[in-house]
Amino acid sequence: MDLSRRSDQELLSDVAKLVGSYRDITAKIVLYFAEIEERRLHLQAGFSSMFEFCVKNLGLGEGEASRRIVAARLGKRFPTVYSLLASGAVHLSSLELLSKR
Question: 36-60 b/e with 16+ CB inside 10 Å = b?
Answer without folding.
Answer: bbeeeebeeeebeebbebbbeeeeb
